[in-house]
Design goal:
- It is built from twelve helices and five strands.
- It has a five-stranded parallel beta sheet.
- Helix 10 links the parallel strand 3 and strand 4.
- Helix 2 crosses helix 8.
- By secondary structure, the chain is an alpha/beta fold.
- It is globular.
């Protein structure tokens, strides 16, 4: 096939039945399910919390200036996953951008692997990119099975498609919960976030694990720590919200 013919194919959307076949081949997790991590953490978000984070210098340099990737870190229970879900939701609702997300969970065999992360991101991106549709259709037609396709087989077309967007957010939550032995992906994600930081915005979260802290040091990434002193106001707001909601329910039932 000539280069010109291949470029023409790349510019045309694949028919719905082909895209459905690709989606099935990708085997994504049920990331849109109400019981999934994204919706679970989004339901935990309390209005008027996290404003200090959005007003921070690091967030401005990441979101508005576009310097590099952003790493949100903190102790267990500090609200990192809620921050990830609420920001992803904000970007999806209020910006003309594609938003991709993945929540690592070590307790869930499906959601602790890098291959599942890239499968979910590709699934979320597929309908937005004719280039990606063509690349994955090519992989599918090579009779590459779900088991035999490698992370690199999927990563390459993902990057090719993602960097072509005028604005795209990639959210990877709880990097400390991915399966052990994959610290190299920490570098890979930040490299992608630094490649075109004004258009491809990488948001990463994790606990303050030594092996992650060693990699994610400024100026390689911008860092926001969910320090207890900073989130105390959010905790108070959340408690007030729960008490007010509970009182409203009691009064409505009387």
């Amino acid at each position: 096939m000539s280069t010109r013919a291949w470029k023409t194919i790349q510019s045309l959307p694949q028919p719905p039945h082909v895209r459905a076949k690709i989606q099935k081949w990708l085997c994504p997790s049920e990331y849109t399910a109400e019981s999934g991590d994204y919706n679970k953490h989004l339901r935990s978000y309390c209005p008027n919390t996290g404003e200090w984070l959005r007003q921070s210098d690091q967030y401005f340099r990441w979101h508005d200036v576009g310097e590099t990737a952003l790493w949100v870190n903190g102790i267990p229970g500090s609200g990192k996953s809620v921050v990830a879900a609420s920001l992803a939701n904000d970007f999806d609702k209020h910006e003309h951008a594609v938003v991709l997300y993945f929540f690592f969970r070590y307790a869930n065999v499906e959601n602790r692997t890098l291959k599942q992360m890239i499968r979910d991101w590709l699934s979320q991106l597929l309908d937005h990119s004719t280039l990606l549709q063509a690349r994955l259709k090519d992989l599918l037609e090579r009779s590459m099975s779900h088991e035999s396709v490698t992370f690199e087989d999927l990563w390459t077309p993902f990057v090719q498609a993602a960097v072509a967007f005028p604005k795209i957010y990639c959210v990877a939550d709880a990097l400390d919960e991915m399966e052990p032995g994959n610290d190299w992906i920490l570098h890979r994600l930040t490299e992608l976030g630094r490649q075109t930081p004004s258009t491809l915005k990488m948001l990463l979260t994790s606990r303050q694990s030594p092996h992650i802290e060693k990699v994610y040091k400024e100026p390689l990434v911008l860092s926001i720590n969910l320090d207890r002193r900073l989130i105390d106001h959010d905790i108070a707001t959340y408690i007030h919200y729960l008490l007010s909601d509970n009182l409203t329910m009691r009064l409505s039932n009387d």
